[in-house]
């Protein structure tokens, strides 16, 4: 929030020194004690040479149809001649003149330019009449559009030619731009900020006073209000003001708004914004004569209801969720967020309804997010407003409408709901404070901090009983009180001690070590890590999921239409990465990703199950052609990706891995896909991505795998140990087997390992033959079995006996013929 220190000083008995050095020191103190300061600045910055000028004469330029020659009085003995193209310049106006030699900011580059005398179409011009946008005002806060011309003071301001325009416009007032945390809603108001600064400066706060004069006509004769659901608002009331005259606000009010970063609109709207800045209480004004009927309702939006808000956008309201203020016929505003165009206060308004309320913060936040409509009002309602200031701000606003718009305040407030706030009283002992902070404060010392904060308290000699003020919605427990003491005492003043007691060395858990090892293994096998979005479309979320009928996890408020659903697999994201690389002329790709997938529970209100997965893809050439080695390029195939999976599982410590051919994965090639098991535990799958899927994206064959990393880690041995290399010779036996074509290599290997003894160290399939001279439906597979002992030389009889057990098992279990 932008905080004008000159305005703040009115509530702190002018105790803040506005000197530049003092302001810098104050900003540093605020940062150490309270909140961060984004910037300390003034609207003027380094500009100078701007004065108030009275336009004495306006003559047409002899050589231009859009410029005029003016003579202006700036309090000097002679008039100053200025040529201008401003469409609104006229005799008698008080305007802003940049004199020759003035330093003017360039609103595009931010640099300062020195103004020099010039000739415009043959006429001397000694200065420039300026619009506020030309002297550093952002278009968002300037009260008039740049196209309307130069800025003109109201003659009722009692200004004199030659006065310093920067000072009169409030541009020299130092402004602290505070970067508030969400809990400090109290500092979204000048009064709340005054209490904060007063506590730091040990100054009491003076609350502004006002006189409210009510006329005889009762407000209840002109409007009534009704709330249909008590959960929508804790407080709601309106005041009626008749016979208002819409116009520009006085300069003092406009200065306060634009120094706070808000644009002056008209006197009624400006008053509501002024109250919001002062009390932190958003208010809204309706044009009473635009209401259909005299009844206002606080209710939820109805089905197919629409509203055009003040920004000109048509909003489709969500039935049962958005809070609206409505008449019998239509919605008037999104409560707590923005008013509607159909009841806007404009130049023809004569009677107004002022609204003050505390709306349900959760519903306001949901509405603001749903419609992407975050306003100054919603920011305050979401964080919590001062319960005790709502109706005070409403009455103060009505009083100002009387003063600044000539209105007549109808008698009485019309109230729909006024829920009483329960006081929160917390007890605190000096022993507890000193135990937490390491200090040696007495109860009297602690009481002084609460006096600085303007908290009500009683001291019974043993403890303090502190009543939390309504303005501090961020406080509710004892720890909050101790934090207030700590920051006012000064964090730098707290005693510094070394930690004591036994210390525990930090280390990674077994699961963390296994995840980290998984990444290292994948990279050692030649794959590069990819990181994809966890959010995707519903189709891609389930593309390679194990259960494609399971419910997806959808976001209530997605960032975009293609990031609405939490993923249930990693391969879909890796395919996007492959497509991206191919589109950028990278064709040889080896990627892996490790991350969470999200599985919805049956109860949609529960958080989804999160499972760690690891996946990888290969495409392009595994080997490239080279004249040096006279080899041809070789495209990746199923055995390359399977080899990576096998090497990974072996290194991570998973034993008894088997691969079972499957066609159950609809997005995988039905003839080149296998499910992966460790004994009987399912780990994942490996194979070729279905050609229909890759060809649609103009990709070459893509091979991939996806593993449940939790299942892998559960199946892995706790430690992978090094086995020494045997110094004794190996022995091998070869077997040619005639088998049915339906019998898979993995099944044969499983039978061999199950029948062989501990001396078998390797199984190699070195020949496959199908074709002539073999019975129909048969094929010949040739295996080499390698035996070795780590402790002694093998005996041939032992090897022969083992080999015979293997062949007998193959014959009995698979009905093979040993040739």
Attribute tags:
819 residues; alpha+beta; Phenylalanyl-tRNA Synthetase, Chain B, domain 1; OB fold (Dihydrolipoamide Acetyltransferase, E2P); Phenylalanyl-tRNA Synthetase, Chain B, domain 3; 7-stranded antiparallel beta sheet; 7-stranded mixed beta sheet; 20 helices; 29% strand; elongated
Can you tell me about this structure?
With 819 residues, the protein is of the alpha+beta class. It has six domains: 2-36 and 174-201, Phenylalanyl-tRNA Synthetase, Chain B, domain 1; 48-168, Nucleic acid-binding proteins (OB fold (Dihydrolipoamide Acetyltransferase, E2P), Beta Barrel), CATH 2.40.50.140; 214-418, Phenylalanyl-trna Synthetase, Chain B, domain 3 (Phenylalanyl-tRNA Synthetase, Chain B, domain 3, 3-Layer(bba) Sandwich); 425-491, Phenylalanyl-tRNA Synthetase, Chain B, domain 1; 510-715, BirA Bifunctional Protein, domain 2 (2-Layer Sandwich), CATH 3.30.930.10; 731-818, Alpha-Beta Plaits (2-Layer Sandwich). Helices cover 26% and strands 29% of the residues. Strand 37 and strand 38 (668-678) form a beta hairpin. The radius of gyration is 40 Å and the shape is elongated.
What's the short version?
By secondary structure, this protein is of the alpha+beta class. The protein is 26% helix and 29% strand.
List the topology elements.
Elements: E1 2-4, H1 5-9, H2 20-33, E2 36-41, E3 48-60, E4 68-73, E5 80-84, E6 94-105, E7 112-114, E8 118-120, E9 123-125, E10 128-129, E11 152-153, H3 165-168, E12 175-179, H4 190-201, E13 214-218, E14 224-227, E15 233-242, H5 251-259, H6 267-279, E16 283-287, E17 295-300, E18 306-308, E19 314-316, E20 323-326, E21 331-334, E22 338-339, E23 352-359, H7 361-370, H8 376-383, H9 390-405, E24 408-411, E25 414-418, E26 425-428, H10 430-437, H11 443-452, E27 456-459, E28 464-467, H12 478-489, H13 510-524, E29 528-529, E30 535-536, H14 538-541, E31 553-554, E32 565-566, H15 571-583, E33 589-599, E34 609-619, E35 621-623, E36 634-635, H16 638-652, E37 657-661, E38 668-678, E39 681-689, H17 691-695, E40 702-708, H18 709-715, E41 731-740, H19 745-755, E42 760-769, E43 778-787, H20 796-814, E44 817-818
Parallel strand pairs: 13-24, 14-17, 29-33
Antiparallel strand pairs: 1-12, 2-12, 3-4, 3-6, 4-5, 6-7, 6-10, 6-11, 8-9, 15-23, 15-24, 15-25, 16-23, 17-20, 18-19, 20-21, 21-22, 26-28, 27-28, 30-32, 31-32, 33-34, 34-40, 35-36, 37-38, 38-39, 39-40, 41-43, 41-44, 42-43
Helix pairs in contact: 5-6, 6-9, 7-8, 13-16, 19-20
């Amino acid at each position: 929030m932008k905080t004008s220190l000159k305005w703040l000083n009115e509530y702190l008995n002018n105790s803040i020194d506005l000197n530049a050095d003092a302001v810098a020191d104050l900003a540093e103190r605020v940062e150490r004690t309270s909140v961060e300061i984004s910037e300390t600045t003034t609207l003027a910055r380094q500009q100078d040479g701007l004065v108030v000028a009275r336009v004495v004469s306006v003559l047409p330029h002899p050589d231009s149809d859009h410029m005029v020659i003016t003579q202006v009085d700036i309090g000097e003995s002679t008039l100053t001649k200025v040529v201008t193209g401003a469409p609104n310049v006229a005799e008698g106006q008080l305007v802003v003149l940049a004199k020759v030699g003035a330093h003017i900011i360039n609103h595009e580059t931010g640099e300062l330019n020195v103004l020099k005398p010039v000739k415009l179409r043959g006429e001397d011009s000694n200065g420039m009449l300026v619009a506020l946008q030309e002297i550093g005002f952002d278009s968002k806060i300037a009260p008039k559009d740049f196209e309307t011309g130069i800025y003109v003071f109201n003659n009722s301001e009692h200004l004199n030619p030659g006065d310093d325009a920067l000072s009169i416009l409030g541009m020299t007032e130092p402004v602290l731009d505070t970067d508030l945390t969400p809990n400090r809603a109290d500092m979204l108001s000048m009064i709340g900020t005054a209490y904060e600064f007063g506590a730091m400066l040990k100054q009491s706060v003076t609350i502004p006073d006002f006189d409210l004069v009510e006329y005889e006509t009762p407000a209840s004769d002109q409007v009534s209000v009704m709330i249909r659901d008590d959960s929508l608002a804790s407080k709601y009331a309106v005041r009626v003001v008749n016979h208002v005259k819409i116009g520009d606000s006085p300069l003092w009010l406009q200065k306060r708004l634009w120094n706070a970063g808000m644009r002056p609109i008209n006197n009624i709207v400006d008053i509501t914004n002024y109250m919001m800045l002062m009390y932190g209480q958003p208010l809204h004004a309706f044009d009473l004569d635009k209401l259909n009927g005299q009844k206002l309702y606080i209710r939820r939006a109805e089905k197919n209801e629409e509203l055009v808000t003040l920004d000109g956008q048509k909003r489709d309201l969500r039935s049962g969720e958005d809070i609206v203020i409505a008449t019998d016929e239509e919605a008037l505003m999104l409560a707590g967020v923005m008013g509607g165009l159909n009841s806007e206060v404009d130049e023809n308004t004569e009677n107004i309804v002022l609204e003050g309320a505390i709306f349900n913060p959760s519903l306001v936040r949901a509405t603001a997010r749903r419609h992407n409509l975050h306003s100054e009002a919603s920011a305050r309602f979401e964080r919590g407003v001062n319960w005790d200031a709502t109706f005070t701000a409403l009455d103060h606003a009505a009083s100002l409408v009387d003063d600044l718009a000539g209105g007549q305040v109808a008698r009485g407030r019309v109230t729909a709901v006024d829920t009483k706030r329960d006081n929160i009283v917390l007890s605190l002992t000096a022993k507890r404070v000193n135990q937490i902070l390491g200090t040696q404060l007495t109860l009297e010392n602690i009481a002084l901090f609460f006096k600085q904060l303007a908290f009500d308290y009683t001291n019974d000699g043993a403890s303090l009983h502190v009543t939390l003020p309504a303005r501090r919605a961020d406080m509710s427990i004892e720890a909050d009180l101790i934090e207030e003491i700590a920051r006012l005492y000064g964090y730098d003043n707290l005693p510094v001690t070394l930690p004591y007691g036994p210390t525990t060395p930090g280390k990674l858990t077994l699961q963390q070590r296994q995840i980290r090892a998984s990444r290292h293994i994948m990279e050692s096998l030649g794959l590069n890590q990819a990181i994809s979005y966890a959010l995707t479309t519903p189709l891609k979320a389930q593309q390679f999921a194990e259960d494609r009928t399971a419910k997806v996890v959808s976001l209530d408020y997605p960032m975009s239409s293609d990031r609405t659903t939490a993923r249930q697999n990693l391969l879909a994201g890796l395919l996007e990465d492959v497509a991206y690389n191919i589109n950028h002329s990278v064709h040889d790709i080896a990627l892996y990703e490790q991350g969470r997938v999200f599985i919805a529970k049956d109860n949609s209100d529960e958080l989804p199950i999160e499972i760690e997965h690891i996946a990888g893809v290969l495409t392009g050439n595994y080997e490239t052609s080279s004249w040096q080695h006279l080899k041809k390029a070789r495209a990746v195939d199923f055995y390359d990706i399977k080899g990576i999976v096998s090497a990974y599982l072996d290194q991570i410590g998973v034993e008894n891995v088997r691969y079972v051919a499957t066609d159950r994965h609809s997005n995988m090639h039905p003839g080149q896909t296998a499910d992966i098991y460790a004994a009987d535990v399912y780990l994942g799958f490996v194979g070729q991505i279905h050609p229909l899927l890759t060809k649609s994206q103009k990709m070459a064959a893509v091979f991939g795998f996806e593993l449940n990393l939790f299942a892998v880690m559960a199946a892995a041995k706790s430690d992978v140990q090094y086995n020494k290399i045997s110094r004794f010779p190996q022995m091998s036996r070869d077997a040619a087997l005639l088998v049915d074509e339906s019998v898979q290599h993995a099944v044969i290997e499983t039978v061999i390992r199950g029948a062989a003894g501990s001396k078998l160290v390797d199984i190699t399939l070195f020949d496959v033959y199908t074709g002539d001279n073999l019975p129909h439906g048969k094929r010949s597979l040739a295996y080499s079995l390698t035996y070795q002992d780590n402790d002694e030389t093998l005996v041939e009889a032992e090897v022969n006996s083992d080999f015979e057990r293997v062949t007998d098992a193959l014959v009995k279990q698979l009905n093979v013929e040993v040739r």
